[in-house]
Amino acid sequence: MVNMDKKISVIVPVYNAETYLPQCIESILRQDYEALELLLIDDGSSDKSVQICEEYGRQSGQIRVLTQKNSGVSAARNMGIQHAEGDYILFVDADDYLPGSGVISHMASEMGEADILVGDYMRLWNGKMLPAGSCSSFSGFLPEEGAFRFRGFFSVGTLSYVWCKMYRRSFLQENQLCFGDYTYAEDKLFNFHCYIQGAKYAFLPEPVYVYRKNDASASYRFRPDSVRGWMAIAEELERSVGKEAGDKGFEDLTACTIFFAAFFDGKMNYEYGGKTLSAVKKVLKEYASYPLAKKYFSLLARGKLLKNISPFLWKGMVWGFAWGMWLHCYGVLSLGIKLLIDWRIDERLSDTGLREG
User: Fold this and answer.
1) Residues near 92 by Cβ (< 8 Å), separated by ≥ 6?
2) Spatial separation of the C-alpha atoms in residues 240 and 266, rounded to whole Å
């Protein structure tokens, strides 16, 4: 077995995950890294998740089981951070798992002086394993470059996820980083804060994580109130960029967050709103009612902040969408979103490409 001197804490928030939880736990326990602790944080589950956690806890001295009243995944992860004793922290979702037994030892060996190690991942999509976009698509840029931010957080998106990464616990403590009280995209905002605080990155362009498509998870659930949630995230990000980043030119983070939120919600409302253009128009108008969204769609439409967006196809899409929002062309934008979905162009632009034949 590999014996390294740094202790690693693996934090798994658990909520009604009895179906996939055993596979998740076993994939962690079989790791060949000795100095490992596994924190299972039950978030008030009503199924057999607690019993599963406790049974594994009785079998392994590496496991600590913590419980809380149902407070959400952010509170569960924050509890894990508070109780973690490791030098490094790894977050794993209860319906996902680690591939192979040497993942953690390999990640630890590649940390070096980094605050965050970013690996690649696979998507398990309806029984089909799909490779996702690699961190190598943006790791060649300097972290302060706009292309690094756009590809890392948006078009490829790997930097947004809290999983497939290893964090230096001292970096999180020194910068008082924790998860905000949001029901979704809390990991994206967490990683924005890490970036704004000047995290040093290392990269491992190999799959270190398997992300499962779970229709019951927050990522795939339609939310009628999602506009309010996304704009709250954008507003917090705007405050952080102004307070912490100063004049570093990170406004594109807020601008692109609003663009992708509006585009994503337009898609979701089309797919879950009876595939009608009126459902898309309604959500686009709601975004346009926010002063912060108006500000950034105006800046993008006038060419501001576009230099940080690459490749050219994405630059054109963002600019065109911003123009449509700025000029209130909601019908045209709704038709465009419909065609992107019907022709599956949105899938081709995603991190996994076409998911079904």
Assistant:
1) 10, 11, 12, 24, 28, 98, 163, 209
2) 27
DSSP3 helix / strand / coil % (the chain, rounded to 5) = 50, 15, 35
- Give the type of residue at 215: D
User: What's the rounded Cα separation, in Å, for the pair 285 and 308?
Assistant: 26
Give the SS3 label for residue 86. coil
pLDDT for 270 beyond 50: yes
User: Residues 115, 193, 84, 156: is their CA dihedral positive or negative?
Assistant: negative
Q: What 3-state DSSP class applies to 117?
A: strand
| pLDDT range class, residue 2, cuts 50, 70, 90 | very low
User: Is a pLDDT exceeding 50 seen at residue 324?
Assistant: yes
Concatenating the DSSP letter of every residue in 157-210 gives -GGG-SSSEEEEHHHHHHTT----S-SSSHHHHHHHHHHHTT--EEEEEEEEEE
Q: What is the pTM of this model?
A: 0.93
pLDDT digits (tens, 9 = 90+) for 5-14: 899 999 999 9
Q: What tokens appear for 326 in the block?
A: 């700025």
